[in-house]
Amino acid sequence: KQEVTQIPAALSVPEGENLxxxxxxxxxxxxxxxxxxxxxxxxxxxxxxxxSSQREQTSGRLNASLDKSSGRSTxxxxxxxxxxxxxxxxxxxxxxxWGKLQFGAGTQVVVTP
Amino acid sequence: xxxxxxxxxxxxxxxxxxxxxxxxxxxxxxxxxxxRQDPGQGLRLIYYxxxxxxxxxxxxxxxxSVSREKKESFPLxxxxxxxNPTAFYLCASFPQGLSNQPxxxxxxxxxxxx
Lengths: 113, 114
Prior knowledge:
The complex is a heterodimer. Chain A is an all-beta fold. Chain A has strands at residues 4-7, 10-14, 19-25, 30-38, 44-51, 56-59, 62-67, 72-77, 86-94, 97-103, 107-112. In chain A, strands 2, 4, 5, 9, 10 and 11 form a six-stranded mixed sheet that branches. Chain A has a five-stranded antiparallel sheet with strand order 1-3-8-7-6, with no helix packed on it. The model of chain A has no long low-confidence stretch (mean pLDDT 94). Helices cover 0% and strands 49% of the residues of chain B. In chain B, the strands form two sheets. In chain B, strands 2, 4, 5, 6, 9, 10 and 11 form a seven-stranded mixed sheet that branches. The chains are: A mainly beta, B mainly beta. Chains A and B meet through β4, β5 and β10 of A and β4, β5, β9 and β10 of B.
């Protein structure tokens, strides 16, 4: 059974520092990996989606890498801002059921001014 | 604007009562999903539907039921058999057949016990 782990569970950084969020998964037979952002009491907003054949994806200050062989993905957020404070979740989909997502518990990020 | 609407935002259930959470999407997506989120935990899949009039159980379907009579709508009923229903419920949709597209989520319904 696929297990998705996110470490650390919580992170606090001063504004301007780069953020590094980690996600690991136990079964390398994934179809894609997605990173989401969740604000308190809200739904999830998609940030980046990496196909299993890709190594990384970039969008603005965000960069996500994927290493299937080691079962790891990392989300980098450059030059953090207070508006980046949120919970970040990663999720993987299986090759045989790529619409169904298996989620990690998330990393709660606080960026202090 | 296209999106997913969940209602109500907050819901309270009395013991022995069934309650229904609404999920409507105007994205023309074929697939729809219900997830449950507990504090400090990731989302867990309750039920999903890839086409009208068809749905499958997810990882934690016991105590829940769904229907999919219309493409736009996928209501979730939390039955009295669900002994620990207090959680945040999220509905999502997905453009089936487009594997490079992310899932879209509603803003959730928070269910509590009276």
